[in-house]
């Protein structure tokens, strides 16, 4: 697992971010890894975070999602769902592999690769501050509380 001193943001993600999001203008960056926006569980996670956009904006935190869908699929989905947050396409799943988010799962005797839904909180210089091992319904509140506590230190 990456340490706080080691930036573990995969380069493929940084390359796809808009120029103004790469530099340390914002105090925090939250990067959430989901499987596919077309899977209902991932769509629920995205809808959940959509409700918290004003709260993250107040704390000067950018929120990004990484999906293994193709860029055209993501753009169309964002348009249909009126989703305002950035979704980054990682079709070859390099960032998932770099962060060890692909795990084998056996179902009915067959082995499948499963994407683990994780989130990473970085400070403005892209240093890892927190790793959330599961994206749960209470994660946005946890992240907001962690940002507040990090600001106080």
Automatic annotation (TrEMBL):
Domain of life per record: Bacteria
InterPro entries associated with the record: Thioredoxin-like_sf (IPR036249)
Protein known as: Redoxin domain-containing protein
Organism of this sequence: Amedibacillus dolichus
């Amino acid at each position: 697992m990456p340490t706080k001193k080691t930036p573990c943001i995969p380069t493929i993600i940084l390359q796809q971010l808009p120029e103004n999001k790469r530099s340390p203008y914002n105090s925090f960056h939250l990067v959430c890894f989901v499987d596919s926006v077309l899977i209902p569980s991932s769509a629920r996670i995205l809808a959940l975070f959509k409700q918290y956009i004003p709260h993250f904006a107040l704390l000067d935190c950018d929120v990004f999602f990484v999906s293994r869908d193709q860029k055209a699929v993501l753009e169309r989905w964002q348009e249909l769902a009126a989703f305002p947050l950035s979704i980054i396409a990682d079709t070859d799943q390099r960032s998932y592999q770099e962060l060890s988010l692909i795990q084998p799962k056996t179902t009915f005797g067959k082995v499948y690769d499963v994407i683990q839904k994780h989130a990473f909180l970085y400070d403005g210089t892209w240093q890892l501050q927190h790793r959330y091992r599961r994206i749960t319904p209470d994660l946005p509140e946890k992240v907001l509380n962690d940002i507040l506590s990090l600001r106080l230190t």
